[in-house]
């Protein structure tokens, strides 16, 4: 007798799935948050939105499922109720090329939210963001051209990041 076993499709020890994407669970206001996020970034849009009819655990109009893209990356989200909240353990990283982009991104995301240290903030929905210059990775990873420790020392004293100050600190220690 031959026994047939159900197996997860695997390639070189990896499981096969259609996609992997983050899911954000808001207390409420998911639709407002999603619309806000897609209004900020290019190549962003709401893909689908399903609201509760009130015949389940969530009140009528609550978002049961939202699918959206931010700069081409797909996410899902839903209203989970009062037991859900965000922490800094999950954050979006908004990488900016110029100080003007840092300033604009910081201003729009922090409006109604909470500014934090070292380029971090919480938006008005409680989601954490890191608003960082693209040059940060280069400065952190290239000790031959500058001093990453001096740059980090300067960064740790900042709220919103100042690219010129970070670059000066990086160059001053080389």
Summarize, please:
With 174 residues, the protein is of the alpha+beta class. The protein has five helices and ten strands; from the N terminus they run βββαββββαβββααα.
Give structural notes.
By secondary structure, the chain is of the alpha+beta class. The chain has 2 domains: 23-79, Signal recognition particle alu RNA binding heterodimer, srp9/1, CATH 3.30.720; 91-172, 2,3-Dihydroxybiphenyl 1,2-Dioxygenase, domain 1, CATH 3.10.180.10. The chain has 5 helices and 10 strands. The strands form 3 sheets. A 4-stranded mixed sheet has the order 3-6-5-4, with helices on one face. Strands 7-10-9-8 form a 4-stranded mixed sheet, sandwiched between helices. β1 and β2 form a beta hairpin. α4 packs antiparallel against α5 (163-172). Residues 4-8 have low confidence and may be disordered.
